[in-house]
Amino acid sequence: MTDRPLVAYKVLTADQMHALEADTFAGAPVDLADGYIHLSTAAQLTETVDKHFAGQTDLSVAAIDLEALGGAVKWEESRGGALFPHIYGAMPLEIVIAYGPLERDDDGTVRLPVAG
């Protein structure tokens, strides 16, 4: 049993979202350079967007089923020593449980995508 979330989130540009919808997302340029796909937990998502996607529009957020990826997910220290989930390998559409345009609540928090 773990206290780590079973779902994490990936912020995608329009082109990256199209690649994912076509079947599989191999990674953004930063992911490819680092050798893994960067994800954020729900608690980390707004700060990730604010830090790495400031001023960008036409973004989407995908909710990822971490259990479906098994050993391809590693939790590693990143910003401020916090553990972030990283995917070592591609991100197939079949492990995405929800996705949609990046939207914010009135307080500025990124709204999580809802399946349905």
Task: Give the topology.
Elements: E1 7-12, H1 14-22, E2 24-25, H2 29-34, E3 37-38, H3 42-52, E4 60-65, H4 66-69, E5 73-77, E6 83-87, E7 91-92, E8 96-101
Antiparallel strand pairs: 1-4, 2-7, 3-6, 4-8, 5-6
Plain-language structure description:
There is one protein chain. The chain has about 120 residues and is of the alpha+beta class. It is about 25% helix and about 30% strand. It contains 4 helices and 8 strands, in the order E-H-E-H-E-H-E-H-E-E-E-E. It has helices at about 15-20, 30-35, 40-50, 65-70, and strands spanning about 5-10, 25, 35-40, 60-65, 75, 85, 90, 95-100. The strands form 3 sheets. Strands 1-4-8 form a 3-stranded antiparallel sheet. It has a 3-stranded antiparallel sheet with strand order 3-6-5. A hairpin with a 5-residue loop joins strand 5 and strand 6.
Walk across the major sheet and give the strand order.
Answer: 1-4-8
Instruction: Let me know the average pLDDT.
Output: 94
Query: How would you sum up the major sheet?
Result: 3 strands, antiparallel
**Helix content, binned percent:** 25-40%
Approximately what portion of the residues adopt beta-strand conformation?
25-35%
Radius of gyration: 13 Å
Q: Please give the alpha-carbon distance between the first and last residues.
A: 28 Å
Morphology call: globular
Give the SSE order as H and E letters.
EHEHEHEHEEEE
The total of helices stands at: 4
| Record field, number of beta strands | 8
Derived from helix and strand composition plus strand pairing, the structural class reads alpha+beta
Unreliable segments (pLDDT under 50, ≥5 consecutive)?
none
